[in-house]
Amino acid sequence: MSSLNTTDIVKKYGFKFTKSLGQNFLVDRGVLQDIVLGSDISLEDWVIEIGPGVGTLTRELLSAAKRVTAIELDNELLPILTEELKDFDNFELIHKDALKVNFHELIGEEQHVKVVANLPYYVTTPVISMLLKSEIKFDAITIMIQKEVAERIAASPNTKEYGAFSLLTQYYCDSKIIRRVPPTAFVPKPKVDSIVIKLMPLQEKRVRVQDEGLFFKVIREAFNMRRKTLWNALKGLHEDSEVRRAAFEAAGIDSQRRGETLSIEEFALLSDSFYNRIK
Fold first, then answer.
1. Number of domains in the chain
2. What pTM did the predictor assign?
3. pLDDT digits (tens, 9 = 90+) for 206-221
4. What's 222's domain CATH number?
């Protein structure tokens, strides 16, 4: 079996990076191994890898997992992956945009499914949001993301990083930072530091709400203009100011606070309070 590293494979096939696809391939073997270890991959696991690049991480995953299904968008990478990984009978390649994959259909009744991804930064938030909202029972999602996005996921109230994306991820999962990754670990080198973070879906969502759609709408509106008070930010929820005032009072939340000061539990209280008045 080939054991070429990322740089060797890129040279072997004369691969040209596509800037619009935001391609940065890992060249640091230590990071590759830390991703596999941090993902806690076992021979029971089916790994879905999003963005396999030239297959160097895929190779590590194939050696550790029961099987690996890689989802790749770039046409130019398909023959490279097919050739470099031809000796593995537990490898499957899907040519598709991950955002358009029906994961329910792909996974079916399969148990012990883990997702591993090294994504272009511009699709990180949409892909994480899609995976979490799909409510498929992944055992874990281990993903390489821009340091700033990792900080948003782990953020607490009253910090500049805290926002709607923090609350979305914390609603569905716990998170654990596996390691920091410098630009030198990639080719070409990105301009920012990266973080490998593991998301572990909760057995039950972090808070119980009467209407999930309304819960996330309240969060979005609260952070749409961060400097607005909740009173001003949530005016669109009901035209009657007395109804809004009653909702804040019933939730025990001061309408002059800003969204960034509320915990996820307080957002749940507030959204339920509005729900009871506008349903």
1. 2
2. 0.91
3. 999 999 999 999 999 9
4. 1.10.8.100
